[in-house]
Amino acid sequence: xxxxxxxxxxxxxxxxxxxxxxxxxxxxxxxxxxxxxxxxxxxxxxxxxxxxxxxxxxxxxxxxxxxxxxxxxxxxxxxxxxxxxxxxxxxxxxxxxxxxxxxxxxxxxxxxxxxxxxxxxxxxxxxxxxxxxxxxxxxxxxxxxxxxxxxxxxxxxxxxxxxxxxxxxxxxxxxxxxxxxxxxxxxxxxxxxxxxxxxxxxxxxxxxxxxxxxxxxxxxxxxxxxxxxxxxxxxxxxxxxxxxxxxxxxxxxxxxxxxxxxxxxxxxxxxxxxxxxxxxxxxxxxxxxxxxxxxxxxxxxxxxxxxxxxxxxxxxxxxxxxxxxxxxxxxxxxxxxxxxxxxxxxxxxxxxxxxxxxxxxxxxxxxxxxxxxxxxxxxxxxx
Length: 383
Description:
The chain is 3% helix and 50% strand. The chain has helices spanning 262-267, 270-273, and strands spanning 4-20, 31-39, 43-53, 56-65, 91-97, 101-109, 146-155, 166-172, 189-200, 203-214, 227-239, 242-253, 277-291, 294-303, 307-308, 312-313, 319-329, 334-345, 371-382. The protein has a 16-stranded antiparallel beta barrel.
């Protein structure tokens, strides 16, 4: 164990949650306010590191998601939580590197949040960047998040302000993952992308680009059809423990996105729902240390109307979200938190809160126009 480190996070929360205001008649997917307890991104991990001499080292990581609330791999909605769907379910890779560059091979986070924000599963029910990386991201699915079968080159610490930047490539042949609980039938294709990070003084910035190509060119495929994503974020640390960040993102697709917001897509006329298009989002977040053990958070994010390739902007397809939260440190590793979150959908959209425990209904069954809210308190312990 001299070359290995065990780490993890245990976090649960209690909230009142609702999803109401659907435009369908009757609103069969309206879920009136209910109380519940849920897991808030708990995980268990193992990092390994071996000095091979001459500045070269071998390393690896296996991070497995766990659900403390129900000890299963099921979310609040009863769907499979892919982050708790087996050993190394969140991330698993092995690699070689030195202080300049690392080569990592395996399942990795490639288009997932960014290093300039500090919300999401850490302290709040619903962050904001998650709306750009979730399976429920409006009319266009994010191209990737955690990607399997991935080769990634990562800039290490000697790269200074650019440390953490990367380029990656993944082979999309998921027949190996077809199981009784997760049936993935994507055709063979590939995915590629890059992350550019730059940190200097009090300024932080990150650009992410990802493109997923279905090599078969199959317009009827239900996942991983020629999707592209671009997101940019910048932040300024104006005091110790305090910063403001802004974000912009755009996702586009070439074919019909049949797996995202199925009910909403059906509500839009066929000409608008079929074929290519894009959707753009913007956001603002603030994290402010009040002094002592308390920090407050707030975020506002919006998705604009879906912009069809030939028909232009499709009205009533936008969405917005806001969240406010507070963290109180009981120690360096343990704190309690509280938050309030709201997602508001236009009449034809059905964006939902992202994350394994944050919704009580599957995205594909949410009725268009439904609005979701959550008020939560929780405990988080890092080890």
